[in-house]
Design a protein that fits this description.
The chain is built from seven helices and six strands; from the N terminus they run αααββααββαββα. By secondary structure, it is of the alpha+beta class. The strands form two sheets. A four-stranded antiparallel β-sheet has the order 3-4-6-5, with helices on one face. The chain has a two-stranded antiparallel sheet with strand order 1-2. The longest helix has 16 residues. It is globular, with a radius of gyration of 16 Å.
């Protein structure tokens, strides 16, 4: 996937997490306001690739529809706000959230006290997570992606 497409997907996930978008046209208009030139057909493909679903007429990530299944409030906070998980080297992760959410997610990770995580550093919409080693990194990626999918 190209860097530009990944950035557009992050922007789409941010938009659906922060405002009610009911149609592909509304999503395309919102992207346009953010400086992205897109067609309805590319928005349609993006929706399919991201697995967005409609709940009560509003586009949402699939995890947002199943959040009630996650009992732990810290895990739920992560599931609500985490947009992407990327590896960086053998023991580092880069997490993306909507603007203003990184501190909440970083705090939730700290409160979970998963032994595989050495520490977190959060900015506005990005969190760096240091893991103990490469196998810990793989395990944390699996757990975080499970939360993103709405599975505790």
């Amino acid at each position: 996937m190209s860097h530009e497409r990944r950035q557009r997907h992050l922007k789409i996930l941010e938009l659906v997490a922060t405002r009610p978008l009911r149609t592909q046209e509304e999503l395309a208009d919102a992207l346009g306001q953010e400086g992205w030139q897109v067609t309805q057909s590319s928005v349609s493909r993006d929706i399919a690739v991201l697995g967005l679903v409609k709940s009560e007429g509003i586009y949402q990530r699939p995890a947002a529809v199943r959040l009630h299944e996650i009992a732990d409030p810290n895990q739920r906070r992560i599931a609500e706000s985490l947009l992407s998980v990327e590896t960086a080297g053998d023991a580092m992760l880069v997490l993306h959230t909507p603007p203003g959410e990184a501190q909440r997610v970083g705090s939730a990770l700290d409160l979970l006290a998963w032994p595989e995580i050495v520490g977190t550093i959060g900015g506005d919409d990005t969190i760096f997570v240091a893991t103990r080693n490469a196998s810990a990194q793989v395990q944390i990626v699996r757990q975080l992606r499970g939360l993103m999918a709405g599975v505790a």
